[in-house]
Amino acid sequence: MTLAVTGATGFVGRALLEQASANGLEVRALTRRPQEKTDGIEWVAGDLHDRRALATLVKNAEAVIHVAGVVNTHDPMGFHLGNVEGTLALIEATVASGVPRFVFVSSLAAREPKLSKYGASKAHAEKLVKASGLDWTIVRPPAIYGPRDREMFEIFRAARWGVVPMPPPGRMSIIHVADLARLLLALAPSGERATQHTFEPDDGKPEGWSHRELARAIGWAVGRRPWVPHLSKPMLERLARLDKAVRGRRARLTPDRVGYMAHPDWVCRPGKRPPQKLWQPEVATLEGLKATAAWYRQQGWL
Predict the structure, then answer these.
(1) Which tens digit of pLDDT belongs to each residue from 213-241?
(2) Per the domain annotation, does 121 fall within a domain?
(3) Enclosing domain of residue 182
(4) Residue 269 has pLDDT above 80, yes or no
(5) Least confident range of 20-24, 141-145, 161-165, 192-196
(6) What phi and psi values does residue 149 have, to the nearest 5 degrees?
(7) Euclidean distance between CA atoms 55 and 41, whole angstroms
(8) Considering the domain boundaries, does residue 241 fall inside one?
(9) If DSSP codes are grouped into helix, strand and coil, which group holds residue 196?
(10) What is the mean pLDDT of residues 246-254?
């Protein structure tokens, strides 16, 4: 099987390439920057707005796995350009090339599109996928952790300092990046159990994690028992303004993120989990968190 992959140079994409290589699959991957030659991977120079590059990417592929997306941006229009227009361009290229299978990595944020422009853009992209006429499957991951991640890393670093500020009390699901990558590859072939379904995969923990539980678990992974204060939505909004003033375009806490961070329920729904015969999580979360912390230390991040 030849897979066409977007977002291959990112956190999830790298894990996907590793899994594909281990399974002996051929991958054609989109990249905006030159990459080292790698067995089993054909790099295609371009981005989601380069129609010629997209045509090359999907040519003769048996499935497209669309991982690329804008997760954070100082300009909210960036969500529309990357997540909506980029997805539409890839769908058009996929349809034009006759590739039947399309796996789209969305987000749990699409469940509540009114909370953030990011969630709204993912919900809009999902509608485009469903209307494409392709054999599609949508995956809505919760918070993703694992080696190379820079989003959850902020919590690991805070835990190392002994204080982990968290959003207002609520619950959330998480998933290890390797488990997510395995699921995406399992979905690449067509099959009745996956076609035209929207899945919400997680680590298998019933009812997810409370914010405090997760912070304490990450603290355990780095060898600390951190203080875990809950910050109100107004406080998060003030901190977002401060982050923008200090880090400018590199700010990670944006007003748009506050919109969904303050929501109390980001737990994957049991009825939306992938069929057990197709996929089950393999990484035990506490051990996965500990291994992730060890990787951060090895890289000098912690």
Answers:
(1) 999 999 999 999 999 999 999 999 999 99
(2) yes
(3) 2-142+175-202+269-275
(4) yes
(5) 192-196
(6) -70, 135
(7) 17
(8) no
(9) coil
(10) 85
Mean pLDDT of the chain: 96
Contacts of 212 (CB under 8 A, 6+ apart): 166, 169, 228, 230
Domain tally, the chain: 1
Is residue 224 within 8 A of residue 162, CB to CB? The reply is yes
**Can you read off the two tokens belonging to residue 292?**
């992730």
Q: Is the pLDDT of residue 152 over 80?
A: yes
147 domain residue, yes or no: no
Residue owning tokens 């990450």: 218
d(CA 165, CA 182): 32
CA 170 to chain CA mean position, Å = 20
Residue 232 placed within a domain = no
What whole-number distance in Å separates Cα of residue 136 and Cα of residue 63? 10
Nearest alpha carbon to residue 124 among 155, 94, 79, 158: 79
pLDDT at 250: 81
Give the pTM. 0.96
- Give 66-79 as a DSSP string: E-------SSTHHH
Distance between first and last Cα of the chain:
39
CA atoms within 13 A on the CB side of 288: 19
Task: Give me the CATH number covering residue 91.
Answer: 3.40.50.720
